[in-house]
Amino acid sequence: MAREQALLLTEIVNRGVEPSGPDAGSPTFSVRVRRRLPDFLQSVNLKYVRLGYHYLISHGVYLATIPVIVLVCGAEVGSLSRDELWRKVWGEATYDLATVLAFLAVLAFTISVYIMSRPRPVYLIDFACYKPADELKVSKAEFIDLARKSGKFDEDSLAFQSRLLAKSGIGDESYMPRCVFEPGTNCATMKEGRAEASAAMFAALDELFDKCRVRPKDVGVLVVNCSLFNPTPSLSAMIVNHYKMRGNILSYNLGGMGCSAGVIAVDLARDMLQASGAGLAVVVSTEAVSFTWYAGKRRSMLIPNAFFRAGCAAVLLSNRRRDFHRAKYQLEHIVRTHKGADDRSFRSVYQEEDEQRIKGLSISRDLVEVGGHALKTNITTLGPLVLPFSEQILFFAGVLFRHLFPSKTSAPPPPSADGDASAAAPYIPDFKRAFEHFCMHAASRDVLEHLQGNLGLRDGDLEASRAALHRFGNTSSSSIWYELAYLEAKGRVRRGDRVWQLAFGSGFKCNSAVWRAVRRVRRPARSPWLDCVEQYPARMNA
After folding, report:
1. Residue 335's beta-bridge partner residues?
2. Cis bond before residue 508 (omega within 30° of 0)
3. Going from the N-terminus, what domains does the chain have, and what CATH number goes with each?
4. What is the pTM of this model?
5. Which of 70, 132, 340, 509 has the most CB atoms lying inside 10 A of its own CB?
6. Angle at 166 between CA 161 and CA 172, to 5 degrees
7. How many of the other CB atoms lie within 10 Å of CB of 428?
8. Strand partners, 185
9. Which residues contact 128 (CB under 8 A, 6 or more apart)?
10. Number of neighbours of residue 343 by Cβ within 10 angstroms
């Protein structure tokens, strides 16, 4: 019972002055109870720590044996004097030409096999984010006004969406297709969906091909992800047709995978580059807002209306070694977590019809809790791959202690002598020692605040996420790229910096991608942030 209460967050809401009735003229208040993100670092599952160390060991076994070999050989050589070593190598040993040539041939063959069998590194050459036209901008007040004029919502539904917008963290310059506000029409038509998707994808791809000086016919792998709009022919086929790409291109279309699909698409593109040797891959992440729009009365399905906004990102990847000199980043790790085996996680984000058979995306009250558990699993697996050794020792010792002595950690820690109740709290790894930059999915202001508190991050660490949410809203799977574009526009990415992209979405899934900057990234000449980046972060606090 105490554990369940710890996941609840209460707040007192001022409802204003009672207009009528026996209490007319008196102020009224209500108590709102919500679920908070579980403190996932307080309840780490040991099997996920083992999984992370398994990844680490499987990739680092050769590096671990090299110091041992060097140590043994060094001890053997160190026991001999200089004259003895010279005599053993040249005086006592006898060599013939055949032996020397055979040794060199075996050595060359071994080195060649090792180099050829190693997976090639995957580079991010560049990316582009779609910036819609100014006529698609919509403020929070205009959103409610247009929704009221459409005649699709009653006053209770409008008031609920207005409250969501007020605390969403979204500013007054995000973008939405105007078709959702047209009265008496169904905006989720194939024509509207294709028009919205093609405008976003083609604009982002045009900019990407122009920036990278790459012809569409040079692309060997194409991966497109869009969760709710999946026409026939597919979105990937639309791109192939529009740019007249080559006939043997490996194209994939990912649907229904939510806001975390951008990382999944990168993972698939990486695997296909390694398997096929195609050279260049393009990843396109977008969402059709007209298909997330809901014109009914069920509150759980009205939530996406207030948060989702138009956006798209196109990314060019390469595993050609010659592209290292023009690449911006190198992909280091991808860790994917899927909680779909749990029924609550599976139904936390669920597309369905309401009582009036109006289709929409339903957001469960369990979303924050199941999202927290997915984050806990993902971060626990990622930690051993990225954290410094000192942080791993302290973190693993804390986890091991809580599993060996559960009785001492099940109860809340007693306050210390100076009144600090956190003296016995478990050690929280300092992820700021592993990453210089954080790009966490800009779902909402509340989610970002909970993430910041649980991971012990500073306000500046999530500046890019909050800025992307304020300026562009929740752009689904492309939001992590708008955040990286913000960091580049600020000129903050330097050579050797590591960037953590974290996204989560329906299923329930949580995915992480870790990039390392291979050079200093200069401020781009083309970016969706160029006209407003200097106004942030001050603009968010205005």
Report:
1. 512
2. yes
3. 120-326 (3.40.47.10), 350-402+426-538 (3.40.47.10)
4. 0.81
5. 509
6. 100
7. 17
8. none
9. 204, 205, 207, 208, 211, 313, 314, 526
10. 9
Structure tokens at 382: 């990622």
**CA end-to-end span of the chain, whole Å?**
41
List the catalytic residues.
259, 338, 437, 441, 470, 474
Whether the CB-CB separation of 285 and 261 falls below 8 Å is answered with: yes
Q: Check if the beta carbon of residue 41 is closer than 8 Å to that of residue 454.
A: yes
Full pLDDT tens readout for the chain, 542 residues = 444 454 555 455 555 555 555 555 555 555 454 555 555 444 445 444 545 554 554 445 444 556 666 665 666 556 666 666 666 656 555 556 677 778 788 888 778 776 666 678 999 999 999 999 999 999 999 999 999 999 999 999 999 999 999 999 999 999 999 999 988 767 778 999 999 999 999 999 999 999 999 999 999 999 999 999 999 999 999 999 999 999 999 999 999 999 999 999 999 999 999 998 778 999 999 999 999 999 999 999 999 999 999 999 999 999 999 999 999 999 999 999 999 999 999 999 999 999 999 999 999 988 888 988 898 889 888 988 998 888 778 777 776 777 777 665 554 444 443 444 443 455 567 888 899 999 999 999 999 998 898 888 999 999 999 999 999 999 999 999 999 999 999 999 999 999 999 999 998 999 999 999 999 999 999 999 999 999 999 888 76
Instruction: Kindly report the number of other CB atoms within 10 A of residue 483's CB atom.
Output: 29
Q: Are the beta carbons of 510 and 504 closer than 8 angstroms?
A: yes
Handedness of CA 240, 241, 245, 246 (dihedral sign): positive
